[in-house]
């Protein structure tokens, strides 16, 4: 395999943000007007090749300078992710804030100390990576140094690499296997110090090992995964897996490991008992049948149930063994690619070793629908383990969709277009389809061999005068061999003229011959073949040639080449590459492909194949006749379509695409992380709390301080108990301590009703603000309303029936009817159905009941709320604070504010309200009319607030009477004039509330709980973390009081 040298003197890479007057980077801030068009992405300009050839003509001294420069670069950069230009690492403090409008960002990765400029668009990044791969492959094909250059420089020579491929070795004293290249990628110079390592982890190694005393002989195994990864050139590949043999003695293990090292393979040693329970048991008897829609084994004894549990434990032990071996050879920056259902726990175990590992997982079988998968007893554990991976791949979109649906329905996670979001802080596991391919060049090269040509001529003479149909399958229940034979029998029965003109060659490769079900399948197939040959055969010919064995590769290629119709009738198949191999060998024959629509290949080759339902025998028989009678022009058209797909979507492209997507997923995760508020600095917050003289704590309730319901899954009784909000039991003592502190004022600010807050906090000395701050009271006083007296609430009469209608139509959803809002919640309903119902509800509301009403529709994660315009926690906190200051006669400035809650985005204006550096903005209604539903009041800490709120004109229905008299309201309105009015005392309240704040930036801690996007400064994952933090504050008060 060709590699090229890098010459010249590359300059020190610029730090992100440095200007370079001579830069030709198309995305350089001062060069954007000269960006290349999309047509330049195909590399047709050839800039990279020209540069490479010019560089090769440089003298040897220049080459030596490059090596020195690269050595310096390596010392400055500890790792590399992909072929991306390296910049020196800067501290996080030097990174500017991330804006969604920026086209470039400086990124500090925790997966390796590299600092690079990246595009915010995932598609742009992948296109750039694809162009780099093209340029690299171009250099590898055209710019390999000549033998004379190699001998003269003493640096490069061809050597045995992974599985015998060409590799890069060094015979000089430089002691390095690294290479460097200078390439032009859309005008950008790239300097790479070493190839990225790819650790492929699969159940079996790509070689078969045979022991001869103390030595081992290795033979390359056949398989789609092996052939796919043989052509991956831009990675330094290591393969980790079980050798397929039991090696109990240490001498044999050392010898086998040494032999495998030459092939860049690393063995995992499993004892016989583990292999029996893990591989033969849980993998082959539980997961494999379930993933192929065959169901679980039905047992009638309790001992069999215990055996299943033992197999699952062995499955986890085996995955742990694989993880230990991976960890033993792992280096920072490596990409780990786990394969298939044998290793579903591996991503979890790897992340336990190092959370920054780049881990991808790919399933080579179908993934069943959620209704099938949910039968698995260990369903949740397996899903959670796989979701630890950064990227999850499947052959088809259907399989990916089934996986996301299972995570949504079983785990209650949110499925998006990109994958599965794991709450609370929005970790995204990308889920995508990556159809595997084959290496078509291997088949075209085989067909050009003289021995294969001779075999083709021999077969053509043998089958002269007859159309040849071919089936190549493992003798397995999912391959549909009996259905294929029955369809062929029906075809012969209905088409007498074809009986002596067609021949079916069926190759059935035996598997698991010791299993009773497979033995029974073999007998069934032999019986059908015998019956058909006996019924339609003659003394000289038979309609079916059946082989219970495999063919060597070259004879199989010859058989593909002489076939007229290939028949693939899998009942369920992950991909089925036999169809690809048939197309690759049909350059001259241009035969017809009959393909099961239940095979994954149907989504790739469906347009050029005849798709059939293998269970419909009549349909398959009709397809056989149609294929045999197909006109030549139509055959050629179908073949060209399939051949183009097979030759462009190769196995190498599949592997390169997956690894590129995995690398980009890490970049995307870093960008997402930069948008997520950092973890709350508990020690700093507690220290500032201790030093403050007057503290204000604003705490949310729901999902912030509520107790968690412990139960095995999301079941009815647990849901009923969870719907009743309860204060976390550990907070009873915490509030008992904090409420005794005269320097601390506590406000419970929630969207819940007043009765809920009364029940949870009525025994403490604190303030309660219900329904987003529209109602306020001290626990020793009466409720008062903070909303305008004549706020229009007529819309509730028309909206409430709509909510009740959707509650009835959506099982397990419920409606909360509050004084100032209505909320429909479907968190316990089927998530996908709930989303459909929510879209239907929103469409109906916007075109009907609220089309002309002054209301806001607030859509939560799994809820829809309708409230009056201007009702939010941020809009209410100014009035609440003024009332509290007035009632408590606070004169000491408030110098510490802690605001924690799981608030909707509509209510997160409360976080910005207290920001010392930012003006406060809130919605209001002025002059009795809604000003486009929005407005703002600027307010800085230490300044006096201005403005207010008012309701609509007279004639509106008031909700304030239920909370108290008009005299108790904090803000009154003049219904006749529709203008905001405040009494002299209330104006004083506002001034007192504003002037008492003396807040510095370091003394303000806003914290979002379980939110992946927030305006808060900090975040906490769950209510349990809030409880722990409040305990720390209570403990600090105890220490201060003791002093």
UniProtKB/TrEMBL annotation:
**TM region(s), chain numbering:** none
What is the name of this protein?
alpha,alpha-trehalose-phosphate synthase (UDP-forming)
* Bias (Low complexity): 32-41, 953-966
The highest taxon in the source lineage is: Eukaryota
Q: Which catalysed reactions does the entry list for this protein?
A: D-glucose 6-phosphate + UDP-alpha-D-glucose = alpha,alpha-trehalose 6-phosphate + UDP + H(+)
Keywords from UniProt, A to Z, are: Glycosyltransferase, Transferase
GO: which molecular function terms?
A: alpha,alpha-trehalose-phosphate synthase (UDP-forming) activity; trehalose-phosphatase activity
- Which BP terms in the Gene Ontology apply to this protein? trehalose biosynthetic process
Composition bias type Basic and acidic residues, residue spans: 66-75
- Family according to the record: In the N-terminal section; belongs to the glycosyltransferase 20 family.
**Region entry Disordered, spans:** 1-82, 136-156, 941-966
List the EC numbers from the record. Answer: 2.4.1.15
Q: What does UniProt give as GO cellular component? A: cytosol
- Compositional bias, Polar residues, is annotated for 136-153
